Amino acid sequence: MSTHPPRPREPILNLPTAITLSLLALIGIHAVRLLLSEETDFTLIFYWAVIPARWSVAFGGVQTEEVMRYLSEGVPQDTITPLMALAQYVLADGEGRPWTALTYAFLHGSWAHVLINGVWLAAFGTPIVRRCGAGRFFLLSSVSAIAGAILYAFMNPLQVLPMIGASGAVSGLMAAASWFTFAPASWHWEGRVAQPHERPRERLGDMIRNRQVLIFLGIWFAANYVFAFVQPLGLTDASIAWEAHIGGFLAGLILFPFLDPLPARQKRISA
């Protein structure tokens, strides 16, 4: 008989608790929505989603008539289009519902939408949690989601269709992780090679000169373009709100240095 004790089995997915809870929330909310009637789900979406025209009327000084005129351009008089009817429904109470700048991130259009955001959330949220802790992870995600919603509404002030999805938050996590994920792998931490989340944060100038960072950002922006304007292989059920991606990304890029518990690298070290 072998005298060596059996090795403990490594979990297939070793995700931090904060990531696991976030994924369960996104999956659970979408699963519950599938049990609702179409009318109830319709009401839920329009209550909790970002609708730029609603913000414009409530907070931006835009008149409901201006939205209706915009939607009626090129439409015969006395004709009510589906979008015009939707605008009348959405803008009837005049409420802005500012909380939707965050709640929209918990809603998705399909299981494919949940899957795509969930995979990227696990990939880029995990190193953020391990480096900064759950509290700062949730703060970064929330601010990124809000920034994404604000930029989307600013770019589409008369839009009456709802915008949903965690892409703005995920984009912020991607930007935050780019500060340290692509740092040189030669750094050591407590006598061993440092994991990506343990590496010193790059300085902005070093990031701009880092080829890996530039390739990563190029692929990210190209993917946003493809999914926003081409929508290949039918992977999405609706157009991608690329403005929300950009807003979330910029928020994560700007905010992370203020949340990072580790110091930035002072100078380059030759490998």
From TrEMBL:
Compartments (UniProt record): Membrane
Chain segments annotated as transmembrane: 12-32, 44-62, 101-125, 137-155, 161-182, 213-234, 240-259
Major subcellular site: membrane
GO-annotated molecular function: serine-type endopeptidase activity
Residue ranges the record marks as coiled coil: none
One GO BP: proteolysis
Top-level taxon: Bacteria
Peptidase S54 rhomboid domain ranges (all copies): 96-255
Record key words, sorted: Hydrolase, Membrane, Protease, Transmembrane, Transmembrane helix
Entry keyword Transferase: no
Family according to the record: Belongs to the peptidase S54 family.
Protein's recorded name: Membrane associated rhomboid family serine protease
